[in-house]
Design a protein that fits this description.
Elements: E1 10-14, E2 17-20, E3 32-35, E4 42-48, E5 52-56, E6 61-66, E7 72-78, E8 81-86, E9 90-98, E10 103-112, H1 116-125, E11 132-137, E12 140-147, H2 150-163, E13 168-170, E14 173-174
Parallel strand pairs: 2-7, 3-5, 4-10, 12-13, 12-14
Antiparallel strand pairs: 1-2, 5-8, 6-9, 7-8, 9-10, 11-12
Length: 202
């Protein structure tokens, strides 16, 4: 695994993760933070491509393993903190071991499109349509929720298509839903022996 360390001292490599001495404030204030739970259950971490997240571990780790470095990079900042960056679309697995060589935590790291700009665009151009939900799955964008008209649905879809051409899944619904008009029922009284031509609806 090739890494650019910009002059930082490499202390060692464990399980495909570079252990680096960090002293220059690499973690930004807006970085996502996940709390690792001491559990064998898999925890989900979602990171937009090109963005990063920090994992805070309750106890020091001894080693770590990242399954697919093409999807994400992981750097051990300290024995109790890991910095993960999304690189490619998809999902990979990050496993942490404690000092007792027992598995401390397992993460499924899902890296997808950064839809922050799309959400901001929809909010700016369609401010009254606050029922639109935007999610990313790998390199696809999914629209869910409700809009006020079919015209607004088309506008929202067009904005998403500009963001992710031919990769938009549209589950939007018009609310309130347009109902089919049902003609009023006709009650007819038929008198025995009366010709059909002479029957009058009521």
């Amino acid at each position: 695994m090739q890494c650019r360390l910009m002059g930082r001292k490499i202390q060692g490599i464990v399980g495909g993760i570079v252990v680096v001495l960090m002293t220059d404030g690499m973690v930004h204030a807006d970085t996502l933070t996940y709390q690792a739970k001491h559990s064998s259950e898999v925890q989900l971490m979602k990171i937009p491509t090109g963005k990063s997240a920090v994992i805070d571990v309750p106890v020091p780790i001894k080693r770590a393993s990242l399954a697919n470095p093409d999807i994400a990079d992981a750097i051990v900042l300290t024995p109790k903190q890991i910095y993960v960056t999304g690189k490619g679309y998809g999902m990979t697995n990050l496993t942490l071991w404690g000092k007792d060589e027992q598995i401390l935590a397992i993460f499924d790291v899902e890296v997808g499109l950064d839809v922050t700009r799309l959400k901001a665009r929809l909010s700016s151009l369609l401010p009254d349509e606050d029922g639109i939900q935007v999610t990313a799955t790998n390199d696809h964008v999914t629209l869910t929720g409700t809009v006020s008209s079919t015209n607004r649905m088309s506008q929202a879809t067009a904005l998403a298509e500009a963001f992710a051409p031919k990769k938009v899944i549209n589950f939007l619904k018009v609310h309130p839903e347009m109902k089919e008009e049902v003609p009023p029922s006709v009650v007819v009284e038929v008198i025995k022996g009366t010709s059909v031509n002479h029957v009058t609806p009521k």
